Amino acid sequence: MGLKVSIQVTVVCSSAPRQMREIALTLEIGATVQQALLVSGLEALAPSLDLKKSVVGVWGRKVGMDQVLKEHDRVEVYRPLRVNPKTARRERFAQQGSRGAGLFANRRAGSKAGY
Fold first, then answer.
1. What is the per-residue pLDDT for 8?
2. What is the pTM of this model?
3. CA 98 to CA 83: how far, in whole Å?
4. pLDDT in tens, 35-80
5. Can you name the residues that pair with 21 across neighbouring β-strands?
6. Could you give the CA distance from residue 36 to residue 10 in angstroms, rounded to a whole number?
7. How far apart (Å, rounded) are the C-alpha atoms in residues 57 and 54?
């Protein structure tokens, strides 16, 4: 059996809503997140992203740039939130009111409340 000298990883980035880039890379064993981002060429593909300030994760978990990658890891570059999700939910609820929101918003005609 041969000794493996490289790993396959994927770098995923969404520079704008409904725009996603997925780049498959072959890297040396021991490569870090920072090296994967440099090799991916994302700076040229998505100039609006500042990779030095961006938050990154591997499979949905936030990691540092010095995180060592493993075979089939998925490196994700996250955009900063524009609106606090709690604030947005509060505003939507205030707009809809309590009757138009929640689990039982779409009741059948003639049914009891909560069914």
1. 93
2. 0.67
3. 22
4. 998 898 887 777 677 777 788 999 989 998 889 999 999 999 988 7
5. 13
6. 9
7. 10
Q: Where are the domains of the chain?
A: 6-78
Three-class SS string for the chain?
CCCCCEEEEEEEEEEECCEEEEEEEEEECCCEHHHHHHHHCHHHHCCCCCCCCCEEEECCEEECCCCECCCCCEEEEECCCCCCHHHHHHHHHHHHCCCCCCCCCCCCCCCCCCC
Q: Which two tokens stand for residue 99?
A: 């009757």
Distance CA 33, CA 65 (A): 5
Q: What does the alpha-carbon distance between residue 113 and residue 115 come to, in Å, rounded to a whole number?
A: 6
Q: What are 30's two structure tokens?
A: 């021991």
Domain covering 6-78 in this structure, CATH number? 3.10.20.30
Q: Is 39 exposed, middle or buried (0-12, 13-18, 19+ CB in 10 A)?
A: middle
